[in-house]
Each structure stands twice: as C-alpha cells, then as structure tokens.
Amino acid sequence: METGTGTAHRPQIAKADGSAVRVLVVDDENSLTDLLKMALRYEGWEVRTAADGLGAVRVAREFRPDAIVLDIMLPDIDGLEVLQRVRADGTETPVLFLTAKDSLDDRIAGLTAGGDDYVTKPFSLEEVVARLRGLIRRSTLTLAQAKDPVLRVGDLSLDEDSYEVERDGATVELTATEFELLRFLMRNPRRVLSKAQILDRVWNYDFGGKESVVELYISYLRKKIDAGREPMIHTVRGAGYMLKAAG
C-alpha cells in the first residue's frame, strides 16, 4: 500500500453542527487499520476500528459513524453481511468497500448490496481519504435535501421522482438507461468516473465488462445534453468521464 500524500493538505471538513466526522474502519490487518486511523485522524475525524464483522456491527451501533471503511474479506462474517446488518438497523451510512479482488463480479456484489464506493488493494491512503471526503459530502447533502428530489449541476436539473430532466429550462427526453447514467454523473459532479465504475453503478449486473457500452451511452447523452450548448460531459483521457457545470 502506498502511503505518500504528495499534495498539500486540504481544509478539514466537519458536520453541520461543527462536531467531528466519525469513521469506522473494519479490517483484520492491524497494520492497515493503524495506517488508515492515522490518515483519517489527520483529517480531524474521530476514528474507531474493528477487526471482524461481528465487532463491526456492534461498534457501528454504539459509535453511529458518518462513514464506514469496510473490508469485504473478514474472519467471521464477510463485509457484505456486515453491511446488510447495518442497513437492517435503518442506517444509510455511506460505505467504502476495501477489496483485494479486482473482478467485476466482486465490485457489483458490494455495490448492489448497498455499498457506495470501493477501492482495491493495494491502494494509497490519499485515495481512501479522497473517496471518503466525497461520500461524506454527498451523504450530508442528501440528508440536508431529503425533501428535494431534484439534482442540479449548473443549468442542468434532474428530478429523481418525476424522471424529468431539463437544461437551461428546456426539457430533455431520456431513456431509462440514459437517465440512470446522467443521475450517476450528476451525483458525482467534477469527479472522474471510470468506465468500470459506471458499468457497476448504472447496469447493476455483470455486463461482461464491455466498456464500449459506456462509450455508446455517453455519446447518446452528449447528443441530448450538450448538443448546441457548452459541453458539460467531459472525457478525461485514460481515466473516464466527468460532468461539470458549463462556464
């Protein structure tokens, strides 16, 4: 695992009431949890750890974390079972899965079980912190705007209840798959999303790893969202796609 940070430390984030963000780290490798604990505490966050699945469920109930870093492979029950038990308690705490398995099947299993993101081992501490910052920001936004089903990025809006999409006041007609793709992009503005991540989130099953389908649907979206306007959907060469407000 890489431990260098390589960039200047970013401003800390905290909850709306000013209290520290709480993160639960679950992994049976003590050296890894120690490193993660150090990195997350450097962010100003309060950190608890657990070395097995049953311990994780118990700590989650007591600690009520704002985010969970959860290894899929644990010595008793696996991370997917941990997540199911945590969700059964009625909590929607965002979960970042850690996995040593880099197959599409494993990633889909975690994401469809209710996880929010994943990183594969080996990973850099900086990547884990960055993913967690994004999850925490988005979950906080979701809670704050729970009564507002409309996602907005620049002059683009998407209503998750009515399935209506508008750009600069003009209605945009989308198919169901195009809508799901746009929703994923809009939930992650200014974040580069890989084709594998998009396959996992939008198609929700093993699509055979055919990343060309992502390129195809991105082209469909561009024709409907960006045609005749300043583009919002951008290709980041060798990395994936990003949506950001025009201008």
Automatic annotation (TrEMBL):
The keyword Membrane does not apply. SUPFAM superfamilies: C-terminal effector domain of the bipartite response regulators (SSF46894), CheY-like (SSF52172). It comes from the Bacteria. Residues 148-245 bind DNA. Keywords: DNA-binding, Phosphoprotein. Residues 148-245 form the OmpR/PhoB-type domain. Transmembrane segments: none annotated. This is Response regulator transcription factor.
